[in-house]
Amino acid sequence: MKVMLGLNPPTTQGPDPSLVYRPDMDPEAAKDKGSFRNYTVSSLSPCPAHPHPGEQHLPSTQLRGCPMGTPPHHTLWVCLGEGPLLDRVFTTYKLMHTHQTVDFVRSKHAQFGGFSYKRMTVMEAVDLLDRLVDESDPDVDFPNSFHAFQTAEGIRKAHPDKDWFHLVGLLHDLGKVLALFGEPQWAVVGDTFPVGCRPQASVVFCNSTFQDNTDLQDPRYSTELGMYQPHCGLDRVLMSWGHDEYMHQVMKFNKFSLPPEAFYMIRFHSFYPWHTGNDYQQLCSPQDLAMLPWVQEFNKFDLYTKCPDLPDVDTLRPYYQGLIDKYCPGILSW
């Protein structure tokens, strides 16, 4: 985990990271980031792993990168500092949490539900990701196609008998081609959450980024359940729009012959408040809870294969092309 937090974050205007893809848009002001982490800082002390003179570090208990099974009170140490990486991550989430509303998500389902933006194979979509670096992710600063193969290979080593699971590793971020279709990154990348109900505490930057979301001023959407019935099931929940939801819809439309576990992994792998934060239980059905361990198993490889040792993609392509031919062959509608 490479998150760097500034002791005195600037309050000046910062760039909208989505302008890389939307140069015609005006930048929006980045809000004061003095309290944008959801944990409370009680003290600063030397970091045992990096005891450099004059360097300060922050004990954090709510970092997304905590290994599976880490107790809630476990302390991780995060280097403090200022820089464009932190600014772009915060700005992306501020824009996301302001503009992802029920009406916005429904409009995106209508806009992309015809799957008429592009016709291409899975491998062509993988190659498109070479043009994208996810600006919500502090752990990756190389193209997403490499992370796709890293994730797939990590799964392949741990689960050699589940070839469908290997393919999920390759597929999981392909929905990020939305950014290359002209969508701003706050509507493509980052952790997801249900719209139509009050955001729960484990949503990243929850306390400092939802103030301007109009749904929270609407009594239909501002309670714990919002527009949903208790334990209605996540299949009936409207998730924030992004690459997870889009890729899940692409898979259904093109009739991928993968098991239900694969569809859950794709749709909910960025739903950290659920699979890691244990929130939104009031919306879950027994089926969701049965599938949760599969999503958590996938998450191990999504997080912990993010390293600078890049795979030999050309060597791996024939194996994964064979899986594509088995489960999702040919030219697909996107």
UniProtKB/TrEMBL annotation:
Its main location: cytoplasm. Its cofactor is Fe cation. It catalyses: myo-inositol + O2 = D-glucuronate + H2O + H(+). It comes from the Eukaryota. Signal peptide: none annotated. Residues 1-27 are annotated as: Disordered. Binds 2 iron ions per subunit. It is found in: Cytoplasm. Keywords: Cytoplasm, Iron, Metal-binding, Oxidoreductase. It is an enzyme of class 1 (oxidoreductase). Pfam families: MIOX. Its EC number is 1.13.99.1. InterPro entries: Inositol_oxygenase (IPR007828). Pathway: Polyol metabolism; myo-inositol degradation into D-glucuronate; D-glucuronate from myo-inositol: step 1/1. Belongs to the myo-inositol oxygenase family. PANTHER family: INOSITOL OXYGENASE, MYOINOSITOL OXYGENASE. This is Inositol oxygenase. It comes from Saguinus oedipus (Cotton-top tamarin).
